[in-house]
Amino acid sequence: MILPRNGRIVVIDDKFEEQAFPLLKTLYRNGFSAMYFSGEQIELPTNPLSDVRTIFLDMELIEAADNNSKAAFTANTLSHIVDISGHFFYFIILWATHTELTNYFWRYIYENPECKCNFITIELNKALCAANNYDITFIESEITQTLQSKKGYLFLANWENVINKSANDSICELLSLLEDEEDIDKKLLRIIKNLAIAYAGDYVKDTTGQIVKNAMLAFNSIYKDSLERNTIDVSDDGFDFNGVGEIQNKKIKAAINSKLLLCTNSLNPKPGNIYLETNDELHRNMCFDLVEKESYLEEVIANSQLISCEVSPFCDYAQKKWRVGRLVFGLFIDDGYRKRIKKADCLYKTPLLKYGDKVGLFVFDMRRSESKKLGKWRRKIISSMRYDLVVDLQHKIGGHCSRPGMISL
Fold this sequence. Notes:
Blueprint: E1 9-12, H1 16-29, E2 34-37, E3 54-57, H2 67-81, E4 89-94, H3 99-111, E5 118-123, H4 126-131, H5 136-146, H6 151-176, H7 184-200, H8 208-232, H9 250-261, E6 262-263, E7 273-276, H10 280-290, H11 297-302, E8 304-310, H12 314-318, E9 324-334, E10 347-349, E11 353-355, E12 358-373, E13 380-385, H13 387-401
Parallel strand pairs: 1-2, 1-3, 3-4, 4-5
Antiparallel strand pairs: 6-13, 7-8, 7-13, 8-9, 9-12, 10-12, 11-12
């Protein structure tokens, strides 16, 4: 399905009865939510919308003496309806054939100093749509035919629709668990409370804020299962990746890895938090232990930072059984100096990551760890690991601590 089913469609057309309304009726009949704007100033959203994906745009929204003025008005209207200041992308269906306005329109869009977004654009003949009674199969076939060369967009459109379906499936699964009672709200609240208890333990029973947060975390697991199930059914037919190379730019690779492995910093201590340490003696000693050759010591010290990572069990954190913070120490090494670090079973090295404007990796030494009482340290949080990376590090630490020793001659 090319069109989004999660209400991310906008129709912009000044002629409501003759043109916009028949299109909207077709979309609604086929389960597509859409927002409508005529272009009138009083109808524009208070703040530009950033959660739009597809736009049916009539290029000629006003009667004006020249094409320049018409295109300027349309470009200005579009920039007030959707947010063009971020790294978004929009699929614009030019909802009429006004080739005489196109160059002017795009000039006004891209000359806007705030414009950072990307557009995929096709033309859809409004007269042909009307001749086919605005049939959704005709509209989608016309769009599909034009988008055959835009497989990247088709992938993202599929993915967003899978997300929408998975969220709906998860809610339906939750509702199917409810007992047969009259009060639907009590049914939901009982399920929500028990999901929180299942996730975090009995301590949340009388803490409303903790119930809400932990129930959402439990519900994420249901959603993830539904998402994976629906993803398996997605077909990869028609995708051709021949000639599409791998990313070679290290900064881009590091930025992608950071998206996959790191998350928004937490203001509170939690497993996965990475802290900046200021112990110069420990920094030097760690560098001395980790460098391949002693001659590399000073340059590694100069191009690394001492860090620590919270590796306490997630269950202790969720169930408020956390008594001390368990920290493992390491270094952030600039990419140019990572080969100066030795290979050893006691070290855990992450892939290349982006930290501030630097590209490098975190290297943790399992031999250097300590426990601190909660609230007894004042460390700056510089990043936070996603769950999978924390678990992998915890597994490595556990394996290092439990490795067997052999005695022999």
